[in-house]
Specification:
Chain lengths: 104, 313
């Protein structure tokens, strides 16, 4: 079944997500997001909910934290710690690949 | 629809205690969790494991499932009757909203709201859930934009209230300037709503096809370009292909292998475009003809050059 017309979406980051949109995209309650922002586990911890806007990175991070919490019954802090390490690992791998290209 | 043996998925006996189910689940989660696993089909396995745990760790669902399992075995074709779980009571809804998209048709039919249609038909509206998918594009697509066809499995409810996945092909416009890990949001392309509620959104996460020529860091691109010894020594204007097409690059005189040149703004486009980093790689011509050997010998004779002098080697 082919849909002929072309679906044009918006690029998250240029248009950032609201709190509700982020929560919905992660299948969590908004409180889940708020608690993790207030405890500094997610985004930059701005105290004004109304101005909270979320990027692609926040979305990836929130979904990963949620999966880790759910699948391992992990405390939010532990899931955030594992997420920090996964992100750091990905950053280093990508820098390593670029460096290998440079050095060999 | 195939019957799923959830005990087999978790590798536990039919008589396994709640504690044993939990232990088996945790062990498999450690092995197959897509965020930490190196197994190739981790995502699919984790979904199966989560589904098995959702049923076997819930005493009510497990009891209902066990009764079905007495008459079926894994892989057998299977259609539940609408009243298959008559006599069993569930606390609240049979499933979490988030589960339907992630779990199999088998699960959705047994425990999904729609699978139990006809009983206590609730008159409520619900927005469809958001869905997520990965889309792999070529680096060139990020430079120029593109339209890519992608096929997603979408759960659909038929007139009998059964859930079946249907392949849905979508032509998606990839906007110019996307980065790896960035999302494209397609409004209304997620799961359909319930009772006339709006459909959810579809989030596409961008990944690039691995290309040995390029390394990507955010919007910056790294690329190796081979040059001849005379181009590197004397300087030259060379042409090289980049993700944005063939460009002219000025190689400064006195370049060595490994020298990095930055082509500002030649990375992935955007409000702040990335840069293209070119690493020069000096490639020696082989000394496989008399002429070539003669030239090398002339250099050896005429050039006072010892690359090990500085290293003391």
């Amino acid at each position: 079944m082919t849909q002929q017309n072309i679906a044009s979406g918006e690029l998250v980051d240029e248009a950032t997500l609201t709190l509700d949109e982020l929560a919905r995209a992660c299948s969590v309650e908004t409180n889940w997001v708020i608690e993790r922002i207030e405890s500094g586990l997610l985004a930059d911890g701005s105290p004004y909910v109304a101005s909270w806007r979320f990027t692609s990175h926040d979305l990836t991070r929130a979904r990963r934290m949620y999966r880790l919490e759910r699948d391992f019954e992990a405390a939010p802090e532990l899931a955030a710690l594992a997420t920090d390490l996964i992100e750091e690992n990905q950053r280093l791998k990508s820098r390593l690949r670029a460096a290998e290209l440079r050095d060999t | 629809m195939e019957f799923k043996d959830y005990y087999q998925v978790l590798g536990v006996a039919k008589a396994a205690t709640a504690d044993e189910v939990k232990k088996a689940y945790r062990k498999l989660a450690r092995q197959f969790h897509p965020d930490v696993s190196k197994e190739p089909d981790a995502e699919r396995r984790m979904q199966e494991i989560n589904e098995a745990k959702a049923v076997l760790s819930d005493p009510e669902k497990r009891l209902a499932y066990d009764q079905l399992a007495e008459q079926h075995h894994a892989g057998q074709d299977f259609q539940p009757s609408p009243e298959w779980d008559a006599g069993f009571e569930y606390r609240g809804r049979g499933f979490e909203e988030a589960d339907l998209g992630e779990f199999s048709d088998f699960f959705a039919n047994l425990f999904g709201q729609s699978g139990r249609g006809g009983r206590g038909g609730r008159d409520y509206q619900m927005r469809g859930e958001d869905r997520h998918a990965k889309v792999v594009i070529d680096l060139e697509d990020a430079y120029h934009g593109a339209v890519r066809a992608m096929t997603l499995q979408v759960p659909q409810v038929d007139a009998q209230g059964r859930v079946a996945s249907r392949a849905h092909t979508l032509n998606v416009r990839i906007p110019k300037g996307v980065k790896a890990g960035q999302h494209i949001r397609l409004s209304g392309q997620g799961s359909p709503g319930v009772g006339g509620g709006p459909a959810g959104d579809l989030f596409l996460e961008i990944h690039f096809t691995p290309d040995p020529r390029y390394q990507i860091e955010g919007r910056d691109i790294h690329q190796k370009v081979p040059v001849t010894p005379w181009e590197a020594a004397l300087g030259a204007s060379i042409e090289t292909s980049t993700p944005s097409g063939v460009v002219k690059v000025k190689v400064p005189a006195g370049s060595q292998s490994g020298r990095r040149l930055r082509l500002k703004g030649r990375g992935i486009p955007g409000a702040e475009p990335g840069d293209l980093y070119i690493t020069l790689e000096v490639v020696l011509p082989p000394a496989n003809t008399d002429k070539a050997r003669e030239l090398y010998e002339t250099m050896a004779r005429e050039l006072a050059f010892d690359p090990r002098q500085r290293t003391g080697g």
